[in-house]
Queue: 3 jobs
Job 1
Amino acid sequence: MTITRVANEERICQGDIFENVTCILSVTTTDGVQSTTGLSYPYVVVMSQDCDLQQHYEVLCRIDPDNGEEETDKLLTTVIVVPMYNYEQFIIGEHLQNQNRKMTRHFISRNKTPNRELRNNNNPRYHYLQFDESTLIVNSVVDFKHFFTVSIDYLYEIRGRSREYTIDVLFRERLSQRFADYLSRIGLPDGTTE
């Protein structure tokens, strides 16, 4: 897979990788004081469609705060992201231990090459991302079941300090297609999928 450094790209793109993004789980108010509970992920990849992200950016660029006549129906509120898990921790089921979740070891090999099914992206729930040593990101796995949304305004706020890499177009298209396929699978009443 090829990733590149983000080169002063103003807008957020599908396939952008952000560091240290928090998924807000709840907001509570006690005695007039608000507090939030969330999970922080070392890396997430943006999954929202690039055409939607492009249209959002174009509207932002055209908005005249003094005029207020620009149509804003193309603006997004949130962006879909998927956490990236360290591959080595993932295969031994320890990638979510900071959330006190015990994960199973799914990929004990039945053939001679360990974790071949995972690394070849033959399991529809997961996508393996291999990075070269020039990046500071270790090989990772995304679990399509663990997607969440994050405020697009927040991503624009942190993009300069938190977004360093983006997945090249061909690879992000494959990742996007596999994500859409997983979400559109047919669920059966007993919890299995078609």
Job 2
Amino acid sequence: MRKPFTKEMANLPKVWEDWCKKGKYSVGVKRRPAKDQLDKNNEVRGFYSDLILDPTLAHTDSLYPSIEHVIPKRNDGKLVVEARIINDMKSHLRENEFWMAIEHLYAVGLEKGEVSHPATRKDGVFRPKNNYSKPKG
């Protein structure tokens, strides 16, 4: 009798295996959260943002995937993958402060007419134009 398919048994796409080999964390440490966050379309989505992450982007891109420590800090037993921009924001705030900031930005966006109500966007098309690279010139 065959075992039911699980994410642990899934193979990561090659671009994600390549990403797992980069940086200071071991392949296994990075592979675990990437597999956990695979969706039915074989794409890895950000843990907090649900954005489709792309490991082929430049490491300076705001949406480049990065490892995020879930509470407590420096506990490699609970890591997730998130876009750099979200990871940086989350790193500066406690989790409740992070969600308060998101809620605040949503309320401000509604008030200014920049956010539609109700917010239903979960399509992963968010693409900031500014990244972490230094300006040329």
Job 3
Amino acid sequence: MDPRTMWLVIAIVVIVVAAAGWYWTRTQRTRRLRRRFGPEYDRTVHQEGDLKRGEAALEARARRVERLHIRSLNEDDQRRYRNAWTEVQTRFVDDPKGAVTEADRLVGEVMNARGYPVGEFERRVEDVSVDHPNVVMNYRAAREIADQHAAGRASTEDLRQAMVHYRALFSELLGTRPTVETIARPREAAPRSR
């Protein structure tokens, strides 16, 4: 084989190996991010409009959260927050609107206690998605219902669903599994006597 042909073959082999390495690395990155972020991966890639920008945004989130001092709650704090949640959930029977507002506040308080910044809502969701990807959609759904409630467009059943969503996130943040219990339906107004 003449030297020019040999160098051409070597160059082609190097290009093919480099392309395969690049493809393998990219595939592994995508697989790792999909596993870490779950449904949030697809949402972010779609929102960014491009795979490369979406994955870069997810990696930036992960780096930002790594710099935070996220901590677990001690047993006393867990107990205190569980008791507070029980009170909020009980309140739902008589005051669904107030309970949803209180549930949102309590979730924010737990996030703050864990070390998550509690500024702008979308940033909170992004931060929580790094460590709790399977419940972040619950947070978005609950907040959307709470916003509808604030605008006077949420039914009592919508509010009950918001409580279910908040409970899933709350339990995840507390480090406990959600219980099987359901959110009680609000009491019907007593019929008026004539």
